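Narrative summary of target 7.
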Amino acid sequence: MSHSSSPSGICYLVGAGPGDLGLVTLKARECIERADVLVYDYLCNPAMLAWAPAGCEVIYAGKKAGNHALKQGEINALLVAKAKAGKIVVRLKGGDPYVFGRGAEEAQDLVKAGLAFEVVPGISSVIAAPAYAGIPVTHRGLVSQLTIFTGHEDPGKTARSLNLDAIAKAEGTKVMLMGVERIEAITRQLIAKGMEASTPVAMIRWATTGRQQTIRGRLDDIASIVHETGFEAPAVAIFGDVVNLRDELNWFEKRPLFGRRIVVTRTRSQAGALSGRLLALGADVIELPTIRIEPPVDVRAFAELVVDVHKYDWLVFTSPNGVNAFFEVFYRAYTDAREIGGVKIAAIGPATAQRVKDFRLLPNLQPKEFVTEGLIKSFMEEGALDNQKVLIVRAEKTRELLAVALTKQGAIVDEAVGYRTVPETASSDRTGTLERFRNEGADLITFASSSAVDSFVALKLPLPAGVLMASMGPVTSRTLRRHGFKIDIEAPKPSIESFADAIARHYAR
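Modeled conformation, tokenized:
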């Protein structure tokens, strides 16, 4: 909850971790969820921005070679100004704020201004990048010393330059952050200072993400390998015998979908269950918001039906979003779940059923086929519906097939429109995923609903050459075909688990 009315602001210097969203700390997320102002860097996973409150001011302060959105002095002044205004300011920094992150300079300016600040450490790529490349930075049988340095300084300058003589002579593993552009000069000087030319070297870019790329060589040829492969920043370099353990311990890059860039079209508020499964299989996932969930046009009419739910014999949910919308209103009106009465609950699909269970209620009816037709069949098998009162919770502009079918069976049906899907626009994409899709393309685009297909088409994005299309069920497939798309992958069952498995099987072939 935001505390923007506080007379005294505070700035949290938060480590955003190395890239994998699962490596972000709980405290980092808590800070983001309370932020009035969020200032983030180039290396931060943009998915973290979705945790910010709706009214949060989001400011990009990214810095990469030759392109600084804001200079460091401007960033410091910005943090001070926003905290002075009584705001909760979260400064998101890739990795850890104090490991070559200039967080100490930002903290010093906050102290000079008499402002409160806190540091939330993050997992640094110093240890995360080697670990995800199958390289332990220490090993009892090999090395027990770790040297960390930055390659960002120019090795040719005399004032305040790196002590490459000491680094070359240091025992154990050496990890260098930044410095891809200077790798030739750095390695040449390390050899000149006495470091063995045959020292194993690995370089890892976009570590811990599905974009991870690793190259290996020796101290005397890694620079030429960088040049030949077009290897670019952001990257971490590891020097030492531990690099040779990669052949045995490389786990991350061996997962079945590693190297595949997969677009997940989704609503902005969804938990990203499909993304999570694909990430676990090694995919480079781009979550592309195509629709967002908003309240219905007639909120009052929906609320009146929810409040009267105890008067119905059946309550039917057709989506997890419908479950969310229903109980949000229900628990505003009631504090006791028993007020729902003796109504029986039907749910289409395991995801919808699970969302009902999250509210400590068990569905009485769940069809084997996770589509409207399957639910109709289940109701027919259940027996006569003569004069049974049924409340269906659905989205605006969805198929009326279920209501018509149940009415034909003798039921008295009311439809509660609980939410509507609104197309996303480029202007509302603060995480930059639309731009990334345009620039980098994808191997596969996934669709879990017809509304996601329609909204994706409305974005009018150019399709990458050779991109495949995947559908979570026959209804979504029909919509894709209506728009002229070929279906390359269709889940045998319209569930997240079946969908992810179908994608993995396709690429395994």
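The mean pLDDT is 89.
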